Backbone:
């Protein structure tokens, strides 16, 4: 028998065996998981003869152990373009922006290793870790974090497990599963904006959906047109310019280009103004830490899971094991700043102003009041009642604070030298 004939015979035998294998799965699962079978039978996969084993494999022992996961790479074998677009977007980094290595957590699931490591490799796929995830129990991490952040590795996050109906993923409600809540209520913003209310009353012809603006033309790159990171910090200039042109192109499907640019520029202005307020609060807290006035100081609380006994005010800040003023800042940055900026870009006046801007400014009032209380209570170089603080001790404290500001880049080297010289001159003038 020739090699070609042998291959043909083998291929025919394989095709003959496939229906039997599929029937074996279906006969059992019609009893065990009838809804899943029904969903598959009504799907485009069934019509295209994509059977259970094509996605799940045929090693039932590994299936039972949870080792044969249908992740984005499995789907990408047929849907390569969608996977490529997805990988370029924020959805494509969803898991790793909300994850952390669980090897030291109690009750960890060994199967979680696959999220960050290729099978058989100790090398992580990404260095990104989330401090807030690492502070949670395994139950909270699974339900409260991964149910949304698994969008990176699981196409079923949007498409469901066994169905293929495009009506599901074209409905804005599918986005609401994750894009809601105090820190990123994009769905609520859209739903109560002019876009959302028009969609409700007149349908997609007049009211654009999340998908129409963020997945234009059916693209799986949900980050097209975005000009800032998930924390609301602007991208580098060229990346920001490119994103803006992408979004203007999307907006001009309904609006004049000049109108779209004006509205988006207003969002930019609100973002800049809000960042200024945020920065003022951050510098107040940092100054208190420089003067050892936080209650408690980082070294006197459980260590930060990534940074240890150090003040953390960036995207890895916690809402637990922290001081009260930092808790106020967490709300200000994670909730109120985000609502102000995202509300502006989603054309929602109430979220931009009352849910966002007003809260942001009242947060600053609260933070200033708490900062004043801490200063009055806890200045380590303040003189006891009825006594005068020694100039040398006061100068030493000022120099230490200036050095810390220079080390983290809040003061340039020139500014640091100028301020340092000023303190030393004042000390010399007060010397007996």
Residues:
């Amino acid at each position: 028998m020739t090699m070609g004939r042998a291959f043909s015979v083998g291929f025919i035998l394989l095709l003959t065996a496939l229906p039997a294998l599929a029937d074996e799965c279906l006969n059992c699962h019609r009893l065990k998981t009838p809804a899943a079978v029904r969903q598959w039978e009504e799907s485009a996969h069934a019509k295209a003869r994509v059977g259970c084993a094509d996605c799940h494999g045929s090693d039932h022992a590994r299936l039972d152990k949870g080792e044969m996961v249908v992740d984005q790479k499995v789907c990408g074998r047929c849907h390569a373009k969608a996977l490529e677009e997805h990988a370029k977007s924020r959805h494509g980094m969803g898991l790793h922006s909300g994850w952390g290595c669980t090897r030291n957590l109690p009750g960890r699931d060994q199967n979680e290793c696959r999220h960050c490591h290729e099978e058989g490799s100790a090398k992580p796929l990404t260095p990104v870790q989330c401090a807030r995830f690492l502070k949670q129990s395994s139950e909270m991490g699974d339900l409260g974090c991964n149910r949304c952040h698994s969008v990176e590795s699981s196409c079923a996050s949007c498409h469901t497990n066994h169905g293929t109906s495009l009506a599901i993923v074209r409905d804005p409600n599918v986005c609401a599963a994750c894009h809601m809540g105090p820190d990123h209520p994009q769905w609520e913003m859209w739903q109560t904006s002019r876009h959302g209310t028009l969609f409700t009353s007149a349908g997609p012809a007049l009211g654009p959906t999340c998908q129409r603006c963020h997945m234009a033309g059916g693209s799986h790159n949900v980050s097209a047109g975005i000009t800032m990171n998930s924390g609301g910090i602007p991208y580098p200039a060229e990346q920001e310019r490119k994103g803006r042109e992408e979004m203007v192109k999307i907006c001009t499907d309904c609006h004049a280009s000049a109108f779209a640019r004006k509205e988006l520029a207003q969002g930019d202005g609100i973002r800049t103004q809000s960042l200024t307020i945020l920065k003022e609060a951050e510098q107040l807290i940092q100054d208190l830490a420089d003067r050892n006035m936080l209650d408690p100081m980082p070294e006197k609380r459980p260590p930060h899971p990534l940074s240890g006994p150090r003040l953390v005010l960036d995207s890895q800040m916690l809402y637990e094991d922290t001081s009260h003023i930092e808790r106020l800042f967490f709300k200000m940055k994670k909730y109120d700043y985000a609502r102000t900026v995202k509300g502006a870009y989603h054309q929602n006046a109430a979220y931009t102003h009352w849910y966002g801007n007003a809260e942001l400014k009242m947060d600053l009032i609260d933070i200033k009041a708490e900062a004043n209380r801490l200063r009055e209570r806890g200045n380590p170089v303040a003189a006891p009642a009825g006594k005068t603080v020694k100039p040398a001790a006061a100068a030493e404290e000022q120099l230490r604070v200036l050095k810390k500001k220079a080390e983290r880049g809040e003061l340039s080297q020139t500014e640091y030298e100028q301020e340092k010289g000023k303190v030393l001159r004042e000390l010399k003038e007060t010397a007996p």
In short: The domain at 223-296+328-378 is CATH 1.20.850.10 (Hydroxylamine Oxidoreductase; Chain A, domain 2). The CA atoms of residues 328 and 366 lie 8 Å apart.
